[in-house]
Amino acid sequence: MKNLKSIFSYCILSLVVVFSISSCKKHDSGGDGPPVITRIRTVYQSTQTSQTVTAFDSTTSDGKIGTLYAVIGNNLSTTKAIYINGVSIYFNIAYSSNTTLQFSVPATVPFSNDTTSNVLTVVTAHGKVSTPFIIEQPAPGITTVSQLAGNAGDVITITGTTFNGLTGVSFGTVPATVLTKSPTVITVKVPSGLTAAHLLVTTSATKGGGVGTGPVVTSGTSLLSNNVSSAKQTNSIFGFNTAIFEDGYENGWSDYGWGAGAKDDKTNIRRGTTSRTYSYTGGYDGYVIQPGSGNSVDANTALKFSIFGGKGTTGKNIHLVLNYNFNTAVQITLTEGKWTDYQIPIANWVDAGNPLPSSISALVFQEFSGNSSTFSMDDVGLVNIK
């Protein structure tokens, strides 16, 4: 009898525990009512610059592509979908609870404008709720330009990203005439009175937009003393502060070298009517461009040129040496049948043992793959990249 009482008591206690746990789970999970959004907040502070924790208001009604956000509210545990401007977006259920959802804004969500809903909607098993949420348009980005120098009236093509809401294109402070435009391609006329300047594209949007510059062009690989190498790139400058070669050598500049010779080329050109073609007879041949006027340089000066690889040159290297100082060089890699634009800051030749020069006395283009080869150059000059 005593054992039966013990067993009965144990069973009653077990049932109480089971009901208690079930009740707690139901209370913790929630989500039985319609969803509620109290706010949207950022997950990380984008301006955080140190490990020091600082208070900041993370509540926002604006979103940026590729940024992580959290929806704060109630009855969110049965969420089935999140929409922004009508586009379904992924959310990680592992980071979800009855009061929180985390999501990242994908590139498929359209930027907010007069034709978009400009809301975020959460759909659960018990209803849906919406809140204002504007997707900022990123600043425009320039990826390529059909030519990086030109005469007044030349038509150039600019390709890039997020040209939506274009309000203007300028070369530095000089505005250009826009001929055609789309979200990824713009054609403009080169304005008069231009020497050298950054190319700027300006857009306007419901939220975001701004000014973009570019394109970023290769600066080669710096081969410094003590076997140190580095690669540094810059936004290209349109035009030249000092032109060296445009359809011919200018301002007293000239070339000479050892190899199969150099000649003007009227067929294979980057721009204009003439390029300069050089032929190496074997490994370590070289050609030298020597200065005329306008050869002073400083930390803000860069050498800009376009180079074309002849037959069989893909992957072949040229070492560009400044002022016959063979302790440092910038390595240029050729591609057969393709023009490649370079803009190399003079500072890319500088290290602790090789100080910044005040002028250019020679630009040595030395073959460094042990092969005979041919290459062409066009649009050579000095620019101020500040």
TrEMBL record:
Pfam families for this protein: TIG (PF01833)
Q: What is this protein called?
A: IPT/TIG domain-containing protein
The IPT/TIG domain sits at 140-199
Instruction: Give the Gene3D superfamilies listed for this entry.
Output: Galactose-binding lectin (2.60.120.430), Immunoglobulins (2.60.40.10)
SUPFAM superfamilies noted in UniProt: E set domains (SSF81296), Galactose-binding domain-like (SSF49785)
